[in-house]
Amino acid sequence: ATLKDGLRSQVSAALKEGRVTPTELCRRCLALIKSTKFLNAYITVAEETALKQAEESEERYKRGQPLGILDGIPIAVKDNFNTAGIETTCASNMLKGYISPYNATVVQKLLDQGAVLLGKTNLDEFAMGSGSTDGVFGPVRNPWSYSKQYKEKSVPKSHSEDEESNWVITGGSSGGSAAAVSSFTCFAALGSDTGGSTRNPAAHCGVVGLKPTYGLISRHGLIPLVNSMDVPGILTRCVDDAAVLLGSLAGHDPKDSTTIQDDFKPFELPNLTDVSKLSIGIPKEYHAPGLSSEILALWSKAADLFKNAGAKVVEVSLPHTRYSIVCYHVLCTAEVASNMARFDGLEYGHRSDTKESTESMYAATRREGFNDVVRGRILSGNYFLLKQNYEKYFVKAQKVRRLIANDFVKVFRSGVDILLTPTTLSVAAPYMEFIQEDNRTRSAQDDILTQAANMAGLPAINVPTALSERGLPVGLQFIGRSFQEKQLLTVAKWFEKQVQFPMIQLEEVKRHDNGVFQHQQSASFS
Amino acid sequence: QKVSLEVLDHLEHLALVDFRDSEGVERLQKAIQFADQLHEVNTDGVEPMDSVLEDRWCLYLREDDVTEGNCTKELLENAREKVEEYFVAPPGNIPLPKLEEREAFLQGS
């Protein structure tokens, strides 16, 4: 088995039959993490505990009693999920050195099934951003910057200019998780998604990024940004693997009262062959200003793919789409203002040395602990929540939110099963270009195609589709009905099979993955 | 319409976060300008939406039973200043000074 195999189809069998052991997998991943350190995808690598978990898993396999498909599988977790005994920083000075006293529910679930926690991945500070460039540990680099595919297509301006200045961003804010999965250092990673933070980097890094329906997966232990929109996100290399992860994470959690109480049954994805009963909606407003012609063409091609296979493809309208970013801006900053209030230096996290008064200590702590982006959002949020502004901004935004959510309800009620849209306006930008604009501007631009799904709480997934002319990944997004993840993933899997997205060719991976077992390098996982 | 100095000061007191410089204030101005686009939308007769799960009645209250706790030691571990089982704070009820006096007051930041 290699690092490139799908979980259910290949790795699980290989582990059960002893063709590869959990400790081998773990060591391979840890070695690859070391040799891809320049990506800056990981903030913390939990080498000792990971190896211990791998050893325990190995014992279970030897006894013929693995806990499930995830037993022994190396995974990574975004650093805004609490992990007991492991530092959780949210890429902020405010939480540097903070050792979580508990595991987030999703982390606990993974550990209970024997998954091996390799480490915590890098992000934008407190998950605010769309580039994974604004954390205190520095930006994350997109593995595709170092791929054969990208290097072949890029023309260095001078002999001395090399990858050092050419590298492209991962997108964000779950960039570390996306880069980790994309560079084969883990089989799956947890991200979070509030405005597109899982799907955006998934698109830029050529991996599958699933945003589940709000209320399906517990947020307990996920350091909150916007309580009414946050969801844990799943990043994997193929849709089947995303279904495996979903199966192990979804379900009611008494510790998170916003999780629905319905029973959740994990499912295997059928191999769809007949799409003639499917109705695909193409929302015309997603042909947004700034959408690159390349991505527009791919989107069109994808629609044709469905049409030619017999599906019904219709243009639909979500008229309030253009207000979703503004709406998000107000609701997000308002909830952030509230959520960030807990960071005062008293109980945990950074504490300023200022001693004059409680208030001055709080103010100094927050000044020292938060970056400009976070502080800016707190101040804006407080502005919108002022008594004189509450109705005008906050309540108004809540009303617009309902209009946005209703747009989707109407479209799904008209017989459309799934919506097909681009995920991002363009491919990953070079870092030097990306930082020319400030975080808020970037977020407003980059979240435009992903944000509305968070507003409405709907499930959405990025499926890597093709490489751009410059050799960078382009992904397309499917949005489904509430709690209809099975249908969403089934369609996504069909599409994945049709497009046969190429595997990234990374020198480092080749070196580490010539495992004991030779295995055919195939472009598709199924 | 610019935000008044009074409101800026009020915000800093509420948020316990400071604007730091004119760039910070500019950022707020831009944020407000951006948010003003909301007023283009007609929301007559539309109810505000608190939660996308409003139809599912899942926001329940649980029974008032003690199900966990006794983790004083773990919780205190992350605090910098403590005495026995208390978190220690500097003296309270001392309001932050007004904007003009602020620079001198916040030392070492």
UniProtKB/TrEMBL annotation, chain A:
Specify whether Transferase is a keyword of the entry.
yes
Top-rank taxon, per record: Eukaryota
GO MF annotation, one: glutaminyl-tRNA synthase (glutamine-hydrolyzing) activity
Any Pfam family hit? Amidase
Which GO terms of type biological process are on file? glutaminyl-tRNAGln biosynthesis via transamidation; mitochondrial translation
Matches recorded under Gene3D superfamilies: Amidase signature (AS) domain (3.90.1300.10)
Cellular component GO terms held in the UniProt record: glutamyl-tRNA(Gln) amidotransferase complex; mitochondrion
The family database entries (InterPro entries) matched by this protein are listed as: Amidase, Amidase_dom, AS_sf, GatA
**SUPFAM superfamilies on file:** Amidase signature (AS) enzymes
Keywords assigned: ATP-binding, Ligase, Mitochondrion, Nucleotide-binding, Protein biosynthesis, Transferase
What residues does the Amidase domain cover? Answer: 27-147, 169-489
- Its recorded name reads GATA amidotransferase
Gene this chain is encoded by: Qrsl1
TrEMBL record, chain B:
Q: Name one GO biological process term.
A: glutaminyl-tRNAGln biosynthesis via transamidation
Recorded GO CC terms: glutamyl-tRNA(Gln) amidotransferase complex; mitochondrion
Q: Does the record bear Transferase in its keywords?
A: yes
Q: Does the keyword Transferase apply?
A: yes
Q: Which residues form a coiled coil?
A: none
Domain of life (superkingdom):
Eukaryota
Q: Which GO terms label this protein's molecular function in UniProt?
A: transferase activity
UniProtKB keywords: Transferase
Q: What is this protein called?
A: GATC amidotransferase
Q: Which gene encodes it?
A: Gatc
